[in-house]
Design goal:
11 helices; binds uridine-5'-diphosphate; binds magnesium ion
Length: about 325
């Protein structure tokens, strides 16, 4: 047997569950303070799920909401056996909520969707149709960024461009967390042990047969985006540090360039001194070079710090999330 350091995953013969007349669909939903959207969301989602299959579950993760989201979810779970709810002990973030849902769903096809109705449930039948044709991942790509502020659209566009240039794993731009994943992909995602979960990157990293479909990204049903610019900045740093070592390596090249320039400049100064004699003044150039190099060194230390901080978090092996309450998981299977 050859040595292998990888993990074998997959369902074996392709298309078994997807060819069957009935299959199980899981819809996974991270929710943070979505009490105002939840009713409208379920009213839109449930008929769509029923039209796709009669065997479905909706796994909702209440990510430490403080606005009555959990009370609303508990009510829905009591009325509708297909709705299952996990409630976190505090806000762990959308990536942790998605991870928890991935850990707890059991569908043959799993669709992740936001609760704010920006991603319309009506797209799900098209995703399922693509899955039944044989695709393992069906990523829904937004037609445009019209619903984002111009600042956010600008930074998102440039973030993906930069990310795809420096990371080994390319992420399709304009593709959020609205996607269908085959159970083999879910099994692969469950094997990834990292604490720092940049899900868009992980979805791309696992590979499989991927197709995209375009959808119309709507306005938020109620409330505001849970991602302010500072959260988005940190999210971008998480993504880059999880998928690229380029920010660490670039300092060696910069160091070589600066050393090369210093060597040439040194040669020039020596020649100049030999030819035209000693030149005493030089305060301006000295202070500029000193400050410049001091700045460069601090930035490079900061970049090191970003990585070391994340290494520290990984080594602690803390759980990614803590569940306070669960509804609908133990009271029999929803059929
Ligand atoms: N969300 C979450 N935890 C958080 C932030 C957001 O579970 O800490 C959920 C949120 O309830 C929504 C989804 O993630 O269902 C996307 O959030 P949002 O709509 O605010 O993001 P945007 O559409 O602005 O990117
Ligand atoms: Mg949204």
């Amino acid at each position: 047997m050859p040595e292998t350091s990888g993990i074998t995953t997959g369902t074996g013969a392709p298309g078994d569950a997807r060819a069957a007349a009935t299959f199980r669909l899981s819809v996974i939903v991270p929710m943070y303070n979505e009490a105002q959207s939840a009713d409208a969301f379920f009213e839109a989602l449930l008929p769509v799920c029923r039209s796709v299959t009669d065997r479905f579950e909706i796994v909702c993760v209440d990510d430490g909401s403080s606005d009555g989201t959990m009370a609303c979810l508990t009510g829905w779970a009591a009325r509708e056996p297909a709705i299952r709810v996990l409630s976190f002990t505090r806000n762990f973030g959308k990536e942790a909520a998605l991870t928890a849902a991935i850990d707890h769903c059991d569908g043959d096809a799993v669709v992740s969707i936001d609760a704010d109705l920006q991603m319309r449930p009506e797209v799900i039948p098209d995703m399922v149709a693509a899955w039944r044709e044989g695709w393992d991942v069906v990523a829904a790509t937004r037609a445009d960024r019209a619903t984002d502020s111009s600042r956010r659209a600008f930074f998102s566009r440039h973030f993906y461009r930069f990310f795809n240039r420096i990371a080994d794993t390319a992420i399709p731009p304009e593709t959020g967390d609205f996607r269908l994943l085959d159970r083999a992909v879910i099994a692969a995602l469950r094997t990834l042990p990292e604490r720092n979960r940049f899900m868009k990157g992980l979805f791309a990293w696992v590979g499989f047969r991927v197709t995209t479909i375009t959808y119309d990204h709507k306005e938020r049903h109620a409330g505001d985006s849970k991602f302010n610019p500072w959260k988005l900045w940190n999210f971008a740093l998480d993504g880059i540090t999880s998928f690229s070592t380029w920010p660490l390596r670039m300092w060696s090249y910069l160091g070589f360039a600066v050393a090369g320039a210093a060597f040439l400049y040194g040669g020039f100064i020596i020649l100049k001194t030999l030819v035209v004699g000693e030149d005493v003044p030089g305060y301006a150039s000295l202070i500029t070079v000193t400050l410049f190099l001091g700045g460069v060194q601090l930035i490079s230390l900061g970049v090191l710090g970003e990585y070391i901080g994340r290494i520290m978090i990984e080594t602690k092996h803390r759980p990614l999330y803590l569940v306070r309450e669960r509804r609908g998981f133990d009271e029999g299977e929803a059929e």
